[in-house]
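Fold it.
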Amino acid sequence: MKHTIRKALLAGTWYHASPGELKRQIETFAAEAPSFEEEREKTLLAVVTPHAGIDYSGRVAACTWKVAAERSYDAVIVIGPSHRVRFKGAAVYGGSGYESPLGVLPVDQELAGRLVGSGHGVIEGDDEGIPENAIELQVPFIQMMLPGVPFVPVTMGTQDRKTCDGLAAAIIDSIGDRRVLIAASSDLSHYLGYEEAVKTDSDTLAYLKRRDIEGFHLSVERGLSHACGSGAMAVAMTVAQARGCDETRVLSYANSGDITGDKSGVVGYAAVAFFRNDESGDERYHGGSTKEDKPELTDQEKSDLIAIARARIEESLKGKRTGDNPVLTSLMKQPRGAFVTLKKHGMLRGCIGMIEPRKPLHKAVEDMARAAAFDDPRFPPLSPSELGEITFEISVLTPLREIRDVEEIEVGRHGLYIVKGSRAGLLLPQVALEQRWDRTTFLEETCRKAGLSEEAWKDHNTVIYVFSAEVFGEYY
């Protein structure tokens, strides 16, 4: 990270260069926005906000930042597409601040460094001299609506699924229990006729309201959603889901035709908020919490997840799916990390897992079941004759939490994930219990699993994460 300040390159063209004029315009837009009183008791996890010239999209953007203004944050991560420079992946600005006519908005360099060092492919970039509106247009709003809160600017050079998944995982791993708002900077459709734009944007927003990440990706890949920051929106949804999002609200929608009256080729703008209702009736999910609470699946949900795992393997072996599809509950649709373990007569027959909450729980279980049956390199692929002898154990993981002191590790409660350089190893909580390991042995064995020396956990370059798991299954 550097101690450079990025200059306000778009002041005087995309927004007022005069501090007084800029401040008055944002204050006017904020005063015109609804109060959002009914949202104040909810936890705001992520937002989508537009980035056109302030005269065009400023009123919609003000709705985004007004709903955030009632809350307290440690930092804001602003994610936007790169309109001017092409590169692969996602890049974090390595400087110390962004300048606007209102002053310098500081970069949270500690958090920025965590993202770059997360091991998920996020790189350090250089925004100097690049007139990127996706990031710069958010700076005055943050300064006005969230005074004193630093930010981390992230630009996506590519917005494919791999980049989105890597950036989402980096954010989830890096923010821990900090109060961090994720802001996806994106306009919607570009240069369609007014009616077509409204229809296209309505379809795009429907994916966000349902938090249908897979459907949204498919819509983008098929050219049906035209948002320039589609990747940023997907990342915001993924992180929000991982932190327990259970409600999405479109706060405002308009397009340039509503502003200028020219409806021949318009650009769409939306303000979207992703909330968690912490006091709602279902308090089983606490993503992003330090409590490491288990998801507390019901017996029916556990039974259905085991059925999903078995059905996926049967489908692969027999070429067709048998049985009825279970009803998916809200928790089964939440992104979770999960491991599926297969045992044959009580002995391990395969175990594969997904650490980060990148997919809905039911889909993670389905995919990991198939991988455990056919892709575990320690065992030959499962044969049809073995299917009746196999029992399933499923471990549903809480989010990873980095620790600084190994005394925090509770054998029997915590699983371990140890990372050093390009090597990483994970052991589930139940492994230490089954093997009757103490804390030191658990650390040593996890290092071995990573291909490291058994004392690598003592190295200051080694990162240690803990997590909890809800474990259930069919037992021999």
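Residues 299-318 form the longest helix (20 residues).
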